[in-house]
Design a protein that fits this description.
Blueprint (H helix, E strand, L loop, with lengths): L1 H75 L5 E5 L4 E15 L2 E4 L6 E6 L6 E2 L4 E5 L2 H35 L6 H33 L3 E2 L4 E6 L6 E2 L7 E5 L3 E8 H4 L7 E6 L6 E8 L9 E8 L10 E13 L1 E2 L5 E3 L2 E7 L5 E5 L1 E6 L2 E6 L7 E2 L13 E5 L4
Parallel strand pairs: 1-23
Antiparallel strand pairs: 1-22, 2-11, 2-15, 3-10, 4-6, 4-9, 5-8, 6-7, 8-10, 11-14, 12-13, 12-15, 13-14, 16-21, 17-18, 18-19, 20-21
Helix pairs in contact: 2-3
Length: 409
């Protein structure tokens, strides 16, 4: 029994010793793996450090080259700005005057009742319709007047019959005078009777013609060819001499613009001045011509009226508003874009490139402003190098590198 326990104890000790060695071997293997990992990480870090050092060295060389190049660039004038300039020269600039006003018929014709009037039977035209001279605009009932005219026509025939009878009696009496059957006094009476009958014929004819003319005036007709603007009458309406204006017409369809101009501008305008009229709300440009300049000035507004004749257009409606541009001649002057003209407390000015390519400020007087640019009335000869853009970022004395731009034609 003791022997068996001793053997068991020895086996247990042997097993423990073997487990210790196995555990020791596993720790040693793990330690080796950790060493290998540290070695790999160290090699990677060394490679990264070398790469970073090489990159830093290359960047330093590039920076030195760039610094050297930048310094050389500064010495060559790389900081001097490049500025666009133009030499405007002298161009023909139209002196235009802007104005506004209303559209009206150049020759407006009010049409009313010319005769005795009556009840309107038909209206034959509408506003906007073209009519000829003498064309009926409205028809008035003439049933009574027609009967009167017929009665007068019948009276003419009665008077003519009486005149023919008196002439026959006179002829017979003259044939019997030589035989002594009729006295000369009877002849004179018969001749007087004949003359009176013929006079009654003429009276009847005159009365009939008067009635015909009166009936012809019953209708409302156009006094001249033109365009009907308004209509103030309807069928069934009773009209007369006191009915006022029933139709308004524009003679020949001619229109005009009544433009209001200041006193100073009126001095530059004369009869025959060309004008471009643009009705409000449209892009139309209708050519016109000044045909009358007001001889008086309104003392309240200090303005006068210029009447501009324009041809008919559907866009022109009497009473409407329009803008006008009057061409008051042409001048030779430098023409610049609006971006070249600056404003300051002392007025308008431009920047020019003077001696040694340095900026100079030049005061100018602005003339006519057109779609092509701004004309310079005084201050420039046209041969200067004028700064076109970036004038607000430059100061007198700044050195620039000018690039010449061709002047607009």
């Amino acid at each position: 029994m003791n022997y068996e326990r001793k053997v068991d104890s020895m086996d247990s000790v042997a097993g423990s010793t073997q487990g210790f060695y196995e555990e020791a071997e596993s720790y040693e293997a793990a330690d080796n793996r950790r060493k290998r990992m540290r070695l790999i990480i160290g090699l990677v870090l060394v490679a990264l450090i070398l790469a970073a050092a090489w990159y830093a060295f290359s960047a330093a060389k590039g920076g030195d080259a760039a610094t050297a190049g930048g310094a050389a660039g500064e010495e060559d004038g790389a900081t001097v700005p490049t500025i666009t300039v133009m030499i405007p020269g002298q161009q023909s600039v139209q002196a235009a005057i802007a104005a506004n006003g209303t559209i009206a018929a150049r020759r407006e014709m009010p049409v009313g009742v010319a005769g005795e009037g009556g009840q309107v039977v038909r209206v034959l035209v509408e506003p906007g319709q073209w009519v000829g001279a003498g064309q009926p605009l409205a028809v008035i009932d003439r049933s009574v007047q027609s009967q009167q005219a017929a009665s007068l026509a019948a009276s003419i025939r009665v008077a003519q019959a009486d005149a023919e009878l008196a002439q026959s009696e006179l002829d017979r009496a003259q044939a019997l005078v030589a035989r002594g059957f009729v006295s000369k006094a009877d002849i004179d009476r018969k001749r007087a009777t004949r003359d009176a009958a013929q006079a009654r014929v003429r009276v009847a004819q005159a009365q009939y013609q008067e009635a015909v003319a009166r009936n012809g005036r019953l209708n409302i007709v156009a006094p001249a060819a033109g365009l009907v603007l308004t209509r103030q009458v309807e069928p069934g309406q009773v009209v007369g001499a006191g009915s006022g204006v029933l139709f308004r017409m524009a003679k020949g369809g001619e229109m005009e613009m009544l433009a209001q101009l200041a006193d100073a501008d009126l001095q530059r305008i004369s009869v025959g001045t060309r004008a471009i009229v643009t009705p409000v709300g449209t892009n139309l440009e209708i050519a016109g011509q000044v045909w009358q300049v007001s001889p008086v000035i309104n003392p309240d507004t200090r303005q006068g009226t210029v009447r501009i004749a324009v041809p008919y257009s559907k866009a022109l409606r009497p009473g409407g508003f329009a803008d006008a541009r009057l061409i008051a001649g042409a001048d030779e002057a430098p023409l610049l874009p609006e971006s070249a003209v600056q404003s300051g407390p002392q007025g308008n000015y431009v920047l020019i490139v003077g001696k040694d390519d340095k900026i100079e400020q030049k005061p100018v007087k602005v003339g006519t402003v057109t779609d092509d640019g701004v004309s310079i009335a005084s201050g420039l000869t046209g041969q200067e190098r004028v700064v076109v853009l970036a004038g607000a970022f430059l100061n007198p004395g700044d050195k620039v590198k000018p690039v010449v731009q061709k002047a607009s034609k």
